[in-house]
Design a protein that fits this description.
Shape: globular
Number of strands: 19
Strand order of the largest sheet: 5-4-3-6-7
Mean pLDDT: 96
Low-confidence stretches: none
CATH architecture of the largest domain: 2-Layer Sandwich
CATH class of the largest domain: Alpha Beta
Strand content: 15-25%
Number of domains: 2
CATH superfamily of the largest domain: Aconitase, domain 3
Number of helices: 16
Largest sheet: 5 strands, parallel
Length: about 475
């Protein structure tokens, strides 16, 4: 019997199998940031241990950093404390840090791919659930807890139980105005937030293969939102073209050697998955969420369900509607909004910014809306400015800010006030995720940009038709 892509990568990284079903897994790259690493470093300190392989650990500051005036000291005390601790720990333990002011600083799941740190066939971990982003390159990448961060720092290995395998195929052509974010929101709306529990997901099909690397990262990023351990996509020419020439990508003869190996990373035709799902790209329309988890999604022209979905309790469903102040059975087209946030590790790359820019050029943000564009890294910010996108956004009424996680989560100064609606390109819409009492509607960069201009939820396809 053949092997899945996941099996091929996992099996070559097993150091030892333990009685009872667990295995010691070697980790190729370990990414860390300021939120989940301080306790891990303290653990090493207490035990008198060094970082075992410091050159395989890369650090950046992203969650707590301000996105304006980054040249000034951080004002918020807890944020300043965490960023300072990361700086001190990296200096003490010899870990490379891309801190504030460094040309490579940015969101950890943005800088890994853009620097060529992320590669096909790797195992990668980070104390952050959206580490699944890196699976877009044909890597096994997943989030870990703080105690596991300490394990990897100390041993470059993890004790893990091998997940089950799932394949999700999406075939066909996407309609204009429908992008990668809509694909993954659609999938999660169908399978629910627990649909992938216990599995590692391989995404396949012509619609997936037709995505850019940025789009593939968006899809894999949100695998965790349906309960999966992670997601991955088989590497192909699109992957190889993206990686080649990047700062830390292999060069010369090493590149040719690695490329030959990467071309073997695919699922064998006779491989068997524990579960399989198939979707038609033609069924996907621009998506939005109506509730307080990413599974509470619907097409922008659809109505809020009249009752809870399968696998979701009625109590949770009703609580969610009360929090969001929306009515079952009604649509959200025309729903007035207050904030728009385009950024996060899901949608803050150049492709995302270019999509939004193409829609808003020559238009104005609605007078009652505060709209923010937050690049995912310093390099993206530099590129966006070189293309004049910062001036284009600012002319339209957007704030063009500095790199960081920003309003994806309430760990920094970019919070959404209580009771306000924010159309966000981030990955989670939990209660209080963007600030206490904030109401989050997840969407693609195109849908978010269209909402900023209209001041309400709109079907972006109508604006695209006007542009055409």
């Amino acid at each position: 019997m053949g092997k899945t892509l996941f099996d091929k990568i996992w099996d070559r990284h097993v150091v030892q199998s333990i009685e009872g079903g667990q295995q010691v897994l070697y980790i190729d790259r370990h990414l860390i940031h300021e939120v989940t690493s301080p306790q891990a470093f303290d653990g090493l300190r207490r035990r008198g241990l060094p970082v075992f392989r410091p050159k395989q650990t890369i650090a950046t500051a992203d969650h707590n950093v301000p996105t304006i005036n980054q040249h000034l000291p951080i004002e918020e005390p807890l944020s300043r404390k965490q960023v300072d601790a990361l700086t001190q720990n990296c200096a003490e333990f010899g870990v490379e840090l891309y801190g504030l002011g460094h040309k490579y600083q940015g969101i950890v799941h943005v800088i890994g791919p853009e620097l060529g740190i992320t590669r096909p066939g790797f195992t990668m971990v980070c104390g952050d659930s959206h580490t699944s982003t890196h699976g877009a390159f044909g890597a096994i990448a997943f989030g870990i807890g703080t105690s596991q961060v300490e394990q990897v720092l100390a041993t470059q290995c993890l004790l893990q139980r091998k997940p089950k395998r799932m394949r999700i195929s999406v075939d066909g052509d996407l309609a204009p105005g429908v992008v990668a974010k809509d694909i993954i929101l659609y999938i999660i709306s169908k399978l629910g937030v627990g649909g992938g529990t216990g599995h590692f997901v391989e995404y396949a099909g012509s619609a997936i293969r037709g995505l850019s690397m940025e789009g593939r990262m968006t899809v894999c990023n949100m695998s965790i939102e349906m309960g999966a351990r992670g997601g991955l996509i088989a590497p192909d020419q699109t992957t190889f073209d993206y990686v080649q020439g990047r700062e830390f990508a292999p060069k010369g003869a090493e590149w040719e050697e690695k490329l030959a190996d990467w071309k073997t990373l695919f699922t064998d035709e006779d491989a068997v998955f524990d579960e399989e799902y198939h979707f038609d790209a033609a069924d996907v329309e621009p998506m939005i969420t109506y509730g307080t988890n990413p599974g509470m999604g619907m097409g922008v022209t659809e109505n809020v369900p009249a009752q809870a979905k399968v696998g979701e309790s009625e109590a949770t469903f009703q609580k969610s509607l009360r929090y969001m102040d929306v009515q079952a059975g009604e649509g959200l087209l025309g729903q007035k909004i207050d904030y728009v946030f385009i950024g996060s590790c899901t949608n803050s790359r150049m492709e995302d910014l270019r999509q939004a820019a193409g829609l808003v050029e020559g238009k104005q943000v609605a007078s009652h809306v505060r709209a923010m564009i937050v690049p995912g890294s310093q390099q993206i910010a530099v590129q966006a400015k070189a293309e004049g996108l910062d001036k284009l956004f600012e002319a339209a009424g957007f704030e063009f800010r500095q790199a960081g996680c920003s309003a994806c989560l309430g760990m920094n100064e970019d919070k959404v006030p209580a009771g306000k609606y924010c159309v966000s390109t981030s990955n989670r819409n939990f209660e209080g995720r963007q600030g206490q009492g904030a109401r989050t509607i997840l969407a693609s960069p195109l849908t978010a940009a269209a909402a900023a201009i209209a001041g309400e939820i709109v079907d972006v396809r109508s604006q695209i038709e006007v542009l055409a």
